[in-house]
Known about the structure:
The chain is mainly α. The chain is about 30% helix and about 5% strand.
Amino acid sequence: xxxxxxxxxxxxxxxxxxxxxxxxxxxxxxxxxxxxxxxxxxxxxxxxxxxxxxxxxxxxxxxxxxxxxxxxxx
Length: 74
């Protein structure tokens, strides 16, 4: 019985492939998917997910300053 399960919006966010919190709330309100509980727990104001932010990074920041060549390349 999934209707009686207590699940947080963060857990749904993770299980639904990091879908935005607003989209998850819309799915619940529209009752468009079977198996998602009608009542979810968790904060509604914090949509921050560290995994989502890290996934959007295109490259790692520089960890050491750049160096110049000491002689010409041959």
